[in-house]
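Deliverable D5.2: sample structural annotation.
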Amino acid sequence: MEQLEQRTPEEIEVEPAYAFSPETIEQMGLSVAIVVGERLCDAAHAKLKDPEAWRSMSYKELRRLLRDNCGNQEGYLSPQAPLLETVVRMLITAKGDTLTLGEIHAEIAELWMTSPWPRHISAESMQRVLDNGTSFGIIRAQ
């Protein structure tokens, strides 16, 4: 009988996961409130007592507002939007703090198939794009 090859934990490739990093946004000299607040949908704006209240909200408060009101809203994720913009919206509205490459790839593939001009991106290509998405606040989760 052939013996199965033993691999150390370092040799087993783990699927990368990604997160939105408000710290990265701040390190670039940008306001997290503005970067995240500009992505509020109409339903989220309607929940605010003052239309400008989002400008003074914390990232945690903004994220909850987005997740509760925008994440499942029809059209919030658009097949016409750039890839990194779509991923930022996915990460901010995700139930958890991270999404795996597989989760992101599956949702993007499904979204793009609904487009009048369907597109395709391999998981490997998407990983390269996401690994270079720090200007959008996208980082690899630890």
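Annotation notes: The two ends are 39 Å apart (CA to CA). Helices lie at 22-27, 32-37, 42-47, 59-69, 83-93, 101-113, 123-131.
The annotation will be released with the project's public dataset once the embargo ends.
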